[in-house]
# Entry
Amino acid sequence: MQADTILTGRSRTARHLIRRFFAVLFAKPLRPSEQAWVAGRLGSGPGPGLFWAQPIPDQRHAHDVARFVNARAPDRVDLPVAALLHDIGKRHARLGAVGRTIATVLHRRPTHEGSRFGLYNDHGPVGARELEHAGFDGVVVGFAAAHHGARLPGIDPGDWALLVEGDHER
# Structure
């Protein structure tokens, strides 16, 4: 195992976690032009409410992932939506940069179900259930559910790879 790998059961490097820590710490709200871009991708319905309920760092991250994905698959409507909504479950944990880091590092240790760390580490399935309840399906729900794990059956490997690359790099 590489020296810079954190032993959390995830393929996260220390460099990646440090970059994410500072991205959360110093995240800026979306500019009006970025807000308009998001609104254009999510349209009406429950998507905008779910997106804007996220903390600013998650809005910023989701926007950046969606822009990355959209630039590489401009004819796809579903992939930017999946990117914009993949982390909506994190908001229930109400953790800042330090709490998120602790939750990530402690990921392999048992956490009390329903605890803030537990909610943070289970944000994918939590968000996927919300998205499904809101009427989303396919890659939008699937990517939220398993974006830190293996591709789910029924999701195109190329779509999955693009979303994962955007999530990891942004």
